[in-house]
Amino acid sequence: NAGVTQTPKFRVLKTGQSMTLLCAQDMNHEYMYWYRQDPGMGLRLIHYSVGEGTTAKGEVPDGYNVSRLKKQNFLLGLESAAPSQTSVYFCASSYISYEQYFGPGTRLTVT
Amino acid sequence: DAKTTQPTSMDCAEGRAANLPCNHSTISGNEYVYWYRQIHSQGPQYIIHGLKNNETNEMASLIITEDRKSSTLILPHATLRDTAVYYCIVRGLYNQFYFGTGTSLTVIP
After folding, report:
1. In whole angstroms, what is the distance from residue B31 CA to residue B2 CA?
2. What are the phi and psi torsion angles at B85 (to 5°)?
3. Do residues B1 and B92 lie in contact, with contact meaning Cβ atoms separated by under 8 Å?
4. Which of A34, A41, A83, B26 has the most CB atoms lying inside 10 A of its own CB?
């Protein structure tokens, strides 16, 4: 099992550009999550999904959109990137109310 | 959702027990406490979790006070590879995790 994978690993964007981060899990988990981590801080929840076709806002949802069209995939979109969105993005998944498994992260820089 | 408070940093001698405290004074009766660690900038790694009873697994022990307002993670014999940032997390209704800033543990040879 690959666990949780994230694509891409690194990306540099210019202000105003858009992009989509892909998270994939092969553990048949129901729940999936997107977090961001800024330097010296803990992870903050952006959006999450409790099942295929459902999404919900977390602590810091502004500027991001998500979609969960397939159970194994959770997409995070930035429609118009801003320097404040420079961060490391982590995806996680869990089987309902059990521990979350995290991906390796995507390092995004917006110039 | 409850928030957690942890010391910013701690040191521990290699081979000794590392005791990492956490305050979660506003935790509600059905909220679990989870502990994760993050080495360098890797994805966080699960350590242990509990509701009200003390828990032990192959990595660590978790001691939760009777009033559930605080807990302590114990690494019984710290090694250099245990140097990491340790997060105490209270789980939300839909299994959302609310991270604090964590404790940076340095194991000293």
Report:
1. 9
2. -95, 130
3. yes
4. A34
Secondary structure (DSSP) of A40-91: TS-EEEEEEEEETTEEEE-SS-TT-EEE-SSTTEEEEEESS--GGG-EEEEE
Cross-chain residue pair B97–A58, CB shorter than 8 Å: no
Binned at pLDDT 50, 70 and 90, residue B28 comes out as confident
Contact A81, A14 (CB under 8 A): yes
pLDDT in tens, B47-69: 999 998 899 999 999 999 999 99
pLDDT of residue B2: 55
- Beta-bridge partners for A12: A109
Contact B21, B35 (CB under 8 A): no
**DSSP code for B70:** E
Residue among B95, B98, B99, B101 with most chain A CBs within 10 A, to mutate:
B95
Confirm or reject contact between B8 and chain A (CB < 8 A): no
Question: Which is more confidently placed, B96 or A57?
Answer: A57
- A110 sits in which H/E element: strand A106-110
